Amino acid sequence: MKFWQIYKEATKQQKIRWIKKWGIIASGSFALSIAGLLLLAKLMGPPALLVPQTTIMYAADGSKMGEINNGGQNRYWVPLKKIDKNLISATISIEDKSFYKHNGFDLKRIAGALLADVKAGAKVQGASTITQQYARNLFLTHEKTWRRKFQEAFYTLRLEMSYSKDEILEGYLNTIYYGHGSYGIQSASRYYFGKNAEELSLSEASMLAGIPKGPSYYSPILHEENAKKRQGIILSSMAEDGSIKKADVQKATSDRLSFVREEEEEVATVAPYFQDAVMRALKKELNVNTNSIQFGGLRIYTTLDPHMQEVAEHTIENRIIDNSSIQTALVAMDPRSGDVKALVGGRDFEESSFNRALQAKRAPGSTFKPFLYYTALEHGYTASTPIKSEPTTFAMGDGVSNYKPKNFKNRYANDFITMAQALALSDNIYAVKTNLYLGPEKLVKTAKKFGIKSELAGIPSLALGSKAVGVLELTNAYGVFANGGKRVEPVFITKITDSKGEVLYEHKYESEQVIDENKAFVMTDLLEGTFDEKLNDYTSVTGSSINHYLTRPMAGKSGSTPNDSWMVGYAPQLVTGVWVGYDNNEELHDVNDTGYSKRIWAYFMEGALKNKQILSFEKPEGVTAVTINPQNGKLATESCPVTRISYYEKGTEPVEYCDEHGVSKEIKEKLEQKKEKKGFFKRIFSW
Predict the structure, then answer these.
(1) Which position among 93, 337, 366, 558 bears the catalytic label?
(2) Distance between terminal CA atoms of the chain?
(3) In this structure, are 666 and 592 located in the same domain?
(4) For 376, phi and psi rounded to 5 degrees?
(5) Between 263 and 611, whose confidence is greater?
(6) Distance between CA atoms of 177 and 253, rounded to whole angstroms?
(7) 405: which strand partners?
(8) Among 564, 581, 609, which residue terminates a domain?
(9) Any stretches that span the bilayer, and where are they (predicted)?
(10) Is pLDDT larger for residue 60 or for residue 102?
């Protein structure tokens, strides 16, 4: 009150002096406030550009196999150089002509907008620059309050101070909303026209540039007339700016546009169980958090081979009858690298997303025997080691219980058979005798070497695969044989980048020599024997039903329990495991159920490797080949009706000739020479 009284009584000169004084103080305060604001913006540095973006998965050939986005919001980031120049010019022309000249605020445009608003008595013209819009899209809501406007101005300052004009424009074009769930120009280009942002025509670019002002009102799909009018305004503005010629305006306006609406087309889901495996690897192995996966715009490069995946799915679909409720799982890997090439975790992902290739554990049956026989090789056995196959009851160490395994259909040789025959014919008596002779704990240790992580027990029946394992781990374990004794870990993801191509993760391939290279090759030869009828004795070799499908060197082993059917095997460049059974663990119904796994495996292997180079298993120097009589494992003579080339570690090959079919004079002489060289001790203790 005193101030106003003094002011009224003051002279004119005094009033002028006071006004100048307070004007200087106010101006100084305003200038200091602005300087302080600029300093604060500078000190705070660049704001984090946390833009939700769609994550994309790619197959090994570079094709897109899947997307992960935020609730149907499609967001892709493309660099400015991959955005059509007409789209850039159209956007600048209609949204912010002075974009490259101002520092975030177009003062002339703001003054013009205020004047227009005053004349109209309402807000009729916007004055936001591209930078202001970008700031609002990134950090703020669209509420019309002074607080929000101040925050927008502050973020605009920080953006202009920290990023170049091209970086701001690139960010704006990748975040602006174009309607129909499409955020960013790449998503909009794909949705409206089915093409990339760098492939747009002038007509398409000018149409898209008009949508952000009102994504619903100017949608060419919902309101084509509104969209066409705005397109004409934009083209005229571009001609005034000189970015296009006047003749281009009429042509672009008259072009008939065809709208694809790409996201609404049904796209076949590629390898859903494999994608599930990728997601599990991202979270559990690479520790990528869910937000980064869903909103981070990651580019995930996987090991999937689209051809092999298609063959796997097609084979399963065509080999199992439609009305069966039986389930299956298939894993195919490159044993040399660990790259998972194909994966099926069930017959229908939409019906059941339970991934049997990763999550299910079932008894592997006789597919576990190769680990037993590798253990036997480590303890003096060879492919020719004989053991009698006959019905046998084993007394357990507790002095009370007995164990009485049986062969399939109770077929026994009732005679001695070789280890090569035991594996090829899947003789259970030979396997259990060997396991007990070696000590069951040795088999447990060997399985762990091969990468079997499931819980095992040192019991007689472990030789027959009585303890449950997973399809992926068993398939990978077989890969050790194929890879010359080296173990690798299964790989689903080779590389992850951000949306701009910066590498965030890259897989480093490593291998570990876990078993002997020579013995691994001998085991491969033994596993090739499961398809060789020369080893047939009292029953067919286990691969006899599918060996006529195979056109290249392959090794493998089938296995079955009352509830499960398996086939695992490999060529030099591909190892595949197949399991078939029922989810509720009910028994397999008939011969169809038990035969599915072998047929799926054979058809898949042949189809997957079609037109691929036929490779042979590479023999190491420490292995030698000899011709034997496969029925007794002895060196063959010219009198033997059936012979087979078999492989042994050097120094362990048989020295005794077969004499079951008569022996020639030449062979008799060789036998006498060998006998003389052996010496007294070896002649007495020849075993």
Answers:
(1) 366
(2) 123
(3) no
(4) -65, -40
(5) 611
(6) 23
(7) none
(8) 609
(9) 21-41
(10) 60
Q: Structural domain of residue 36, as residue ranges?
A: 15-44
Residues 394, 420 share a domain:
yes
Given a cut of 60, whether residue 118 has pLDDT beyond it is no
Alpha-carbon distance of 687 to 669, in angstroms, equals 22
Same domain for 39 and 134, yes or no, is no
DSSP bridge partners of 57: 66, 300
Residues 546 and 642 in one domain: no
Instruction: Note the pTM of the prediction, 2 decimals.
Output: 0.76
* Helix 85-95 and helix 130-139, axial crossing angle in degrees, nearest 10: 100
Task: Given the residues 95, 473, 606, 653, select the one marked as catalytic.
Answer: 95
**Which is nearest to 634 in space by CA: 652, 660, 658?**
658
Is 685 strand, coil or helix?
coil
Q: Is residue 191 part of a domain?
A: yes
On whether both 602 and 634 belong to a single domain, the answer is no
For residue 684, what are the contacts with CB-CB under 8 A and spacing of at least 6? none
Closest residue by Cα to residue 429 from 401, 447, 406, 454 = 406
Please indicate whether residue 351 is annotated as part of the active site: no
* DSSP helix/strand/coil, 679: helix
Q: Respond yes or no: is residue 9 known to be catalytic.
A: no
- Give the integer Cα–Cα distance in Å for 117 and 111: 10
Residue 669 covered by a domain:
yes
Choice among 20-29, 499-508, 630-639 with the minimum mean pLDDT: 20-29
Query: Which of 451, 452, 463, 475 minimizes the C-alpha distance to 369?
Result: 463
User: In this predicted structure, which of 237-241, 259-263, 405-409, 572-576 has the lowest mean pLDDT?
Assistant: 259-263
pLDDT band with cut points at 50, 70 and 90 for residue 338? very high
